[in-house]
Input
Amino acid sequence: MTRRLISLLLAAVMIFALAACGSSQTEATESPATEETGESVAAEDTADSGEVLQFRVGMECAYAPSNWQEDTASDTNYPIENVPGAYAEGYDVQIAKHIADSLGRELVIVKLAWTGLIEALNQGQIDAIIAGMADTEERRQSINFSDPYHTTVYGLMTLPDSPYAGGTTIHDFSGASILGQKDTMLDTVIDQMDGVNHLPPVDSVPNMISRLDQGTCDAIVINLENAPGYLELNPDYNVIEFADGDGFDLGFNGSCVGLRKSDDELLSQVNEALALYTEDDLTELWSWAVENQPN
Output
């Protein structure tokens, strides 16, 4: 009887021991899964926080004095993320740095072709376009725009001996071949001119100037505030500025920051940052960019 009781007690102890082991194993199996999930969430939070701290800005880095590319670091230029060893400089870069500082974010400059800027913005590759982009009605259908940080006036540039060099209104160029930049108002405003040959646009202002120099067009459309920089390279070229009412009807406010339609809060913050500039501040900054643009 005593032996039987002892055997029963031993059996009970073994059952409890097995149960305890099973419980420990189950807990050990579940614990890493819980911890792993926690680590994953924490990693995602860190990544999200990193994105929030960045202010990713797209620009051409080829539209001086608004923006251009340099190969040496300075106190005022900024590294281009997707072009190793290159730096962005210009009016737009300084505006971007000012906004990033106001937002408390890290500025990241991304070099993109003009034609890809809006798509890159809406796909989330960048947070903003700061590239001398005008807030046209067509573009407003795709993205939002800030208040303007620069206003512009359009004119024409011709060779010095051009028969059209003396034009005083946009309607004095009948028969002339006029060239603009693709996907910009520098091209679309040509349709306001009477009787001209509207040439297929090219991809950049330097390309426009090259075509003018080669004689494959009679005139190119330019931002007049950029004219001093163009004339430094081509001092004999003729710049035509039109009087009010005789020139192009631009139909936009000026150069603005482009933002996604969904980024209403960021739009407000950008406008608050821009409001910190006075007109004198912006004029001085533009003059600095014109003086320091590459020759």
